[in-house]
């Protein structure tokens, strides 16, 4: 499995998440719909690659410890993917305008959870399949 693509997607997810976090942290009230959908598309593409290629390769790779790690991450990701999907559905442009403070809080919480997941994948899962590439940094505060 070529981990370069996955590392690159993590870097892009981090970039988009930091940009979105900056917008909600500084109360810019700039139009953010395009950025949210860009993050959603990038994240969903990444998850599809992990589900179709990464997890099966590690689980079937003959290393029981690695297989357990991949199975744990695969099970955990379903919860976060569902939470992200509900977030995208719940916060229409009208809802964002109607309750900006709640949107900002929920966005910051979700992004923190997402970036924690990315960091754990980098350190625990991707380490199993190679020495990786450029490691994304932590979510900016």
What does this protein structure show overall?
- Helices cover 77% and strands 0% of the residues.
- By secondary structure, it is mostly helical.
- The chain has one domain.
- It is elongated and about 50 Å long.
- The termini are far apart.
- The C terminus is likely disordered.
Summarize the structure in short:
The chain has about 140 residues and is mostly helical.
Keywords for this entry:
141 residues, mainly alpha, 5 helices, disordered C terminus
**How many domain modules?**
1
Q: How can the largest sheet be summarized?
A: none
Share in β-strands = under 5%
Q: Assign a percent range to the helix content.
A: over 70%
- The topology string of helices and strands comes to HHHHH
The count of helical stretches stands at: 5
So what's the overall shape?
Answer: elongated
Write the SSE topology.
Layout: H1 3-25, H2 33-59, H3 64-90, H4 93-98, H5 100-125
């Amino acid at each position: 499995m070529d981990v370069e693509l996955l590392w690159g997607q993590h870097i892009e997810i981090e970039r988009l998440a930091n940009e979105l976090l900056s917008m909600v942290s500084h109360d810019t009230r700039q139009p953010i719909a395009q950025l949210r959908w860009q993050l959603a598309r990038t994240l969903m593409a990444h998850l599809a690659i992990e589900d179709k290629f990464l997890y099966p390769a590690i689980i079937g790779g003959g290393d029981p410890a690695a297989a357990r790690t991949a199975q744990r991450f695969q099970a955990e990701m379903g919860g976060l993917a569902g939470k992200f999907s509900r977030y995208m559905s719940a916060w229409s442009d009208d809802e964002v305008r109607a309750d900006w403070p709640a949107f900002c809080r929920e966005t910051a919480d979700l992004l923190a959870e997402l970036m924690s997941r990315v960091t754990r994948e980098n350190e625990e899962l991707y380490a199993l399949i190679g020495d990786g590439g450029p490691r994304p940094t932590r979510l900016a505060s």
